[in-house]
């Protein structure tokens, strides 16, 4: 398979087409990004690596971080994690409050804001130095000690993150937040503010394409069974209320973030990251979705 050729062709074609969508303005710092940024990085487990466009430019990974916090909490708690957060698609927007009352404060899954906030609460309870320990974990998975939080982005979101405050306090009132909500939210905003480029993102997620083992050094991050389950959650819940659409059009487990990033894995084959800041009405990168749809169509490789 000539991945280089396929990636270049799709990338160049999409560049010529209209770029649609909006930049999220509810996090003021994110509104400053140029909408024309467009990067792709492909990493095959046999070590073929292909980068296109702005693949070396860092961006805010936002909700993509939720896969990493879920992974860390899964390592710490094992299956007890699922007592605090569910594994069903929510069918609602990423920051929705509506299901929590009926569900008694147990968020539908760890990849919506409510679920990720509960995961932050869990990590606050089990880690000695939560912010340092989580960052160290991400740096380790990425093999890159320069990965860091952006205080600018975290503070920007914190200054106006009213919905997330509402979610956290509401879950607290229902008994599923054990720590001080201020500390939980502070940690949550930090996690979302991590910055990576497409190359780093594809490397970070390659363990999920490789049965839970980092291809770079053979270090196991998750067991095979845990890896299967994390990929299943990405497949069914990774794109908010557009997860069905992403499975239908692309057919890979993955996760998006409002910073315009999408990362996907094809188990036993590759990981791929795409970044383009304009988002569709569901909050997923317009060009990112388009690129990945064309990519799995032309390569005829997807999990389905
Ligand atoms: N920090 C963002 C929020 O909580 C993450 C949303 C996302 O990327 O989907 O609203």
UniProtKB/TrEMBL annotation:
The molecular function terms of the Gene Ontology recorded here are: glutaminase activity
The family database entries (Pfam families) matched by this protein are listed as: Glutaminase
Keyword match Acetylation = yes
**Cross-referenced InterPro entries:** Beta-lactam/transpept-like, Glutaminase
The EC number of this protein is: 3.5.1.2
Any idea which UniProt keywords this protein has?
A: Acetylation, Hydrolase
- Provide the binding site for substrate: 63, 113, 157, 164, 188, 240, 258
The processes (GO biological process) annotated in the record are: glutamate biosynthetic process; L-glutamine catabolic process
Q: Where is the signal peptide?
A: none
Q: Which reaction does it catalyse?
A: L-glutamine + H2O = L-glutamate + NH4(+)
Can you tell me which family this protein belongs to?
Belongs to the glutaminase family.
* Subunit structure, as described in the record: Homotetramer.
Q: PANTHER family under this entry?
A: GLUTAMINASE
Return the protein name.
Answer: Glutaminase
Q: Which organism does this sequence originate in? A: Capnocytophaga catalasegens
Gene giving rise to this polypeptide: glsA
């Amino acid at each position: 398979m000539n991945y280089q050729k396929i990636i270049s062709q799709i990338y160049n074609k999409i560049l010529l087409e209209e770029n649609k969508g909006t930049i999220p303005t509810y996090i003021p710092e994110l509104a400053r990004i140029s909408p024309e940024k467009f990067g792709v990085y492909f990493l095959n487990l046999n070590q073929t690596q292909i980068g296109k466009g702005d693949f070396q430019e860092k961006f805010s990974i936002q909700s993509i971080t939720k896969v990493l916090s879920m992974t860390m909490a899964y390592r710490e708690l094992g299956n007890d994690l699922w007592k605090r957060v569910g594994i069903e698609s929510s069918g609602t927007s990423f920051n929705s409050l509506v299901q929590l009352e009926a569900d008694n404060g147990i968020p539908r899954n760890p990849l919506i804001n409510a679920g990720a906030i509960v995961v932050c609460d869990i990590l606050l309870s089990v880690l000695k130095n939560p912010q340092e320990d989580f960052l160290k974990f991400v740096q380790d998975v990425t093999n890159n000690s320069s990965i860091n939080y952006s205080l600018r982005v975290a503070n920007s979101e914190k200054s106006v993150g009213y919905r997330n405050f509402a979610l956290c306090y509401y879950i607290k009132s229902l008994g599923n937040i054990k720590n001080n909500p201020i500390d939980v939210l502070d940690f949550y905003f930090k996690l979302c503010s991590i910055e990576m480029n497409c190359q780093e993102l594809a490397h970070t997620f390659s363990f999920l394409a490789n049965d839970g083992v980092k291809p770079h050094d053979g270090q196991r991050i998750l067991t095979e069974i845990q890896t299967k389950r994390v990929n299943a959650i990405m497949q069914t819940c990774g794109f908010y209320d557009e997860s069905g659409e992403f499975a239908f059009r692309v057919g890979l487990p993955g996760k998006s973030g409002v910073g315009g990033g999408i990362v996907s894995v094809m188990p036993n084959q590759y990981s791929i990251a795409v970044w383009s800041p304009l988002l569709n009405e569901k909050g997923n990168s317009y060009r990112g979705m388009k690129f990945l749809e064309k990519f799995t169509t032309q390569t005829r490789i997807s999990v389905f």
